[in-house]
Amino acid sequence: MKVLVAVKRVVDYNVKVRVKADNSGVDLANVKMSMNPFCEIAVEEAVRLKEKGVATEIVVVSVGPTTAQEQLRTALALGADRAILVEAADELNSLAVAKALKAVVDKEQPQLVILGKQAIDSDNNQTGQMLAALTGYAQGTFASKIEVQGNLVVTREIDGGLQTVSLSLPAVVTTDLRLNEPRYASLPNIMKAKKKPLETVTPDALGVSLASTNKTLKVEAPAARSAGIKVKSVAELVEKLKNEAKVI
Ligand code: AMP
User: Residue limits of the Electron transfer flavoprotein alpha/beta-subunit N-terminal domain (predicted)?
Assistant: First the structure.
């Protein structure tokens, strides 16, 4: 089974993001960038499927700037076989990414496409669902367990419990946090990854337009929280909740 994994380059989750002075977006100058954490889980799951003998080839794809090659190389070091970068300089919305991924799916014909459930920069939680709609593939979102039993049996994390669905292949799956714990790339594998194939394609060559249908008008940082205080007694706490915070 060929598995396609979509990985996004995002601001590292440890970075405290700064908003640009003109509120036009987040300041990316000199900021550490990494693979989106949910995409790391997607790569790990594909590698585990290969180790189990279920997956035969893992192709990773990213839609983004040339620098996204770094995240593709990381995925190759984690166990992917080859990588594709769809070059796009502008900020992309989910539909544009889904269209580019659909073109790659048409070319590669994977049986399974794994994406993260959400990119931690845009928080869209849309791309996997849109890709499933565009390709007509079955979809299992927020996966916390994946088993291949002829069909693909996906346990989904939903509000207040778990739902198990059986998907016919080909299928699109998006990963939730508890699906697995991604491994670290070893130094020998990082070295080997440098020699693995990484193809760069333009949206034009794939026959897709990545023109955005929406525009970010303004980005604002959350209001700073005021400092807390310590109270000496329960009575004082109740008095403050009643008369200052006015919440009881
Ligand atoms: P989103 O819908 O933007 O929250 O992203 C959900 C998932 O879609 C991510 O975890 C990735 O697997 C995939 N994805 C989003 N944007 C890109 C991109 N530019 N390149 C490759 N995959 C992407």
Answer: 23-210
pLDDT in tens, 117-126: 999 998 999 9
**In what order do the strands lie in the sheet containing 151-158?**
161-167, 151-158, 138-149, 171-175, 112-116, 2-6, 57-64, 82-87, 198-201
Distance (angstroms) between ligand 1 centre and the Cα of 116 equals 7
Task: Measure 189 CA to ligand 1 centroid, in angstroms.
Answer: 25
Contact 113, 101 (CB under 8 A): yes
- Report whether 49 contacts 148 (CB < 8 A): yes
Q: Give residue-wise pLDDT tens across range 50-106.
A: 999 999 999 999 999 999 999 999 999 999 999 999 999 878 999 999 999 999 999
- Residue pair 38/175 in contact (Cβ under 8 Å)? The answer is yes
Task: Please work out whether the CB of residue 39 comes within 6 Å of at least one atom of ligand 1.
Answer: yes
pTM, two decimals, is: 0.91
Residue among 204, 28, 26 nearest 99 (CA): 204
Given a contact cutoff of 8 angstroms between Cβ atoms, the answer to whether 155 and 163 are in contact is yes
Question: CB–CB of 61/6 below 8 Å?
Answer: yes
Q: Does 141 contact ligand 1 (Cβ within 6 A)?
A: no
Distance between CA 244 and CA 206 in Å, rounded? 61
- The H-assigned helical ranges of the chain are 37-51, 69-78, 94-108, 127-135, 187-193, 203-206, 234-243
For the Cβ of 43 lying below 6 angstroms from any atom of ligand 1, the answer is: no
Is 76's C-beta closer than 6 angstroms to any atom of ligand 1? no
